[in-house]
Design brief:
The chain is an alpha/beta fold. It has eleven helices and eight strands. It has an eight-stranded parallel β-barrel with strand order 1-2-3-4-5-6-7-8, surrounded by eight helices. Bound molecules: pyridoxine-5'-phosphate.
């Protein structure tokens, strides 16, 4: 299972002072040296953390693969096509939210998401859609031409009652299985940390996880390279 690191929070720290450090580009290089399989950054409409400059330089410097997380808007599609990241992940975006709050409801946003997928794919960018764990959403994602899904694990990460966790994990597993059977790539992310990653890594159909907050938070105490390596050690105990 691949580990991709979301470096938005490094940019959040930089933007807190509107200075030039810490530089998310440098962070991406350290994550790659520590063994990360890819780098994820979310260019938001309000540019609250990652900026256009970051995306441009990351495209030139990331040696693994760059996943540009973005809303399905004309502005972002244009930037993605100009930048040509390895892949794009389409997410819902609200100005007031602290972080992405849920998956795309593809039945309600088809009119926005479908044309964005078409344009990205025409340009040769692999496209993933961030969805709630639901096999029905996988069918819609396939119909719209997405290459991959990213399953929202935020609810799983917040649950505390063991029986609720088991139920949510089963939904995640069924969603992953449905996507795999349809020939799609399966990613997962949001709220994953050094504890709850184990059950996710045990779902064989999940190809890749995208993790930001927990790794960057740990990095403040142990250094970024160590924080990435520790996560990789946990994952590699279960999956290659
Ligand atoms: N995947 C998606 C689509 C996200 O929006 C985020 C948060 O930016 C993540 C994964 C990473 O979530 P976290 O920072 O909670 O690890």
């Amino acid at each position: 299972m691949r580990l991709c690191i979301n470096i938005d929070h490094i940019a959040t720290l930089r933007q807190a002072r509107m200075e030039s450090e810490p530089d998310p580009v440098l962070a991406a290089g350290i994550c790659e040296l520590a063994g990360a399989d890819g780098i994820v950054c979310h260019l938001r409409e309000d540019r609250r953390h990652i900026t256009d400059r970051d995306v441009n330089i990351l495209k030139q410097t990331v040696k693994t693969k760059l996943d540009l997380e973005m809303a399905a808007t004309d502005e972002m599609v244009k930037i993605a096509i100009e930048t040509m990241p390895y892949m794009a992940t389409l997410v819902p975006e609200k100005r007031q939210e602290l972080t992405t709050e849920g998956g795309l409801d593809l039945s309600a946003t088809e009119f926005k998401v479908s044309p964005a997928i078409d344009s990205l794919k025409e340009a040769g960018i692999k496209t993933s859609v961030f969805i709630e764990p639901s096999p029905e959403m996988v069918d819609l994602a396939l119909e719209m031409g997405a290459d991959m899904i990213e399953i929202h694990t935020g609810k799983y990460a917040r649950l505390t009652a063991p029986e609720d966790i088991v139920t949510e994990l089963e939904k995640i597993r069924q969603t992953a299985l449905t996507a795999k059977e349809l020939g799609m790539g399966v990613n997962a992310g949001h709220g994953l940390n050094y504890q709850n990653i184990t059950a996710i890594a045990n779902i064989a159909e999940i190809d890749e996880v995208s993790i930001g907050h927990s790794i960057i938070a740990r990095a403040a105490f142990t250094g970024l390279e160590n924080a990435v390596r520790e996560m990789l050690t946990i994952i590699r105990r279960i999956r290659q």
